[in-house]
């Protein structure tokens, strides 16, 4: 399996439920289309989950028809769906004042809302061995994401406003989870900065060693 094919299947496997992907994507499109204000990731998730946060109530978003329309999903599942739709070019993102990001429909996303078409012709077919491997790699991937959050907080003491993707992108973490480098020399091939490698490379290798 080529690396790009593996990463794409990894993302799809990580999504949650193939059968509901199409319907849930349409819910996200509708939520963005009917809202007359910029929605950050956290605000979009709160809207879809039906949580009456202070911001939701301030802007009266609980009256939107999409409020609570994905209450069946947890925060991570909705976030994975949003990121997958971004990767497919169906959502767009722009930076707001203060460094936050807002989400909206791309032209293709609007076209799918107005004229729904299959986003995946069919779910990828996995063998039992594939599923076991993906589950193991997803576990390591989530551990690496937790590590990245901790590392980002520590680095923010020197680099104010540093974002987690500037420490390591999800693509990099997925490659690491899949290939499991075992030496600092191997880890040097994954696009991590010299500072991250020097100060935190050993922590990454320890997580990999524990997962083996």
UniProtKB/TrEMBL annotation:
Residues 134-212 form the HRDC domain. PROSITE patterns: HRDC (PS50967). InterPro entries: HRDC-like_sf (IPR010997), HRDC_dom (IPR002121), HRDC_dom_sf (IPR044876), RQC_domain (IPR018982), WH-like_DNA-bd_sf (IPR036388), WH_DNA-bd_sf (IPR036390). It catalyses: Couples ATP hydrolysis with the unwinding of duplex DNA by translocating in the 3'-5' direction. It is an enzyme of class 5 (isomerase). SMART domains: RQC. It comes from the Bacteria. Signal peptide: none annotated. One of its GO terms (molecular function) is 3'-5' DNA helicase activity. One of its GO terms (biological process) is DNA repair. It holds the Pfam family HRDC. Its EC number is 5.6.2.4. This is DNA 3'-5' helicase. The lineage of its organism: Bacteria, Bacillati, Bacillota, Bacilli, Lactobacillales.
